[in-house]
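ERR on first pass: missing label on line 2. Operator R.T. fixed the label and resubmitted. Corrected input:
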Amino acid sequence: MDSLQSYLVIAAILFSIGIYGVITRKNAIAILMGIELILNSANINFIAFNRFGGMENLDGHVFSIFVIVLAAAEAAVALAIVINLFKNIGSVDVDDADLLKG
Amino acid sequence: MADNLFILIAALVIASAFWVVFSPNLIHSAVSLLFTLFSTAGLYIFLYADFIAATQVVIYVGGILVLIIFGVMLTSKIETPSIAASSKNQFIGGMGAFAIFVIQAGIIFNTQWNIGDVQSRDATVANIGKLILNEYLLPFEIVSILLLAALMGSALLSRRT
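pass 2 clean. output:
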């Protein structure tokens, strides 16, 4: 059970669920949650390859720290944008955000 | 025993992730995301990544999830959750996600992975610190500047003018 493939399959399932959420959700914050799922699946892959690759070093851990930091920055900027969107058009539905269509 | 625990944690990750994308209520989605992130930290502990598991709990659960819940509370009307969280294109999205999963599973099971000696590890914190401050010093500084700029920019963006 504790093999590389099982972790990779879990990460693949998590990635597909995140893609589904990003495609189907209309609320901008729900799309953000889907992106968080995708970033988490990438992190699981980094750590799993670092554990099972037979390496002594910890480069995968450092990369997943970078991914977590980027996720924090992305969440902060995305929520600022969402709150501005709500201030401007009164909704966070991404279908309503067509102000640039003219 | 460890196998049962692993299966339990993996099932928790997947089931709560499903509820994140399928729940009609956004608050339920956010709380379900909490379970996903916590059980992902459990998976990291299975992979001997103690520092990453702690970072996951502190930053994702303590920071990002609180931000997301703030966003939900500030923007959507909680009394009418089904309108706020309604979704569309379920069929196309489901087909696309399933196709991506099938491709990934095919790659995972058809590749001869170069699996080395699986060994236990000591605590990883000291080695991660050495790596960050020696080999990865420049990316670390760049990502620090990026985080600072992103936080200042988001504060500027969401400020009341």
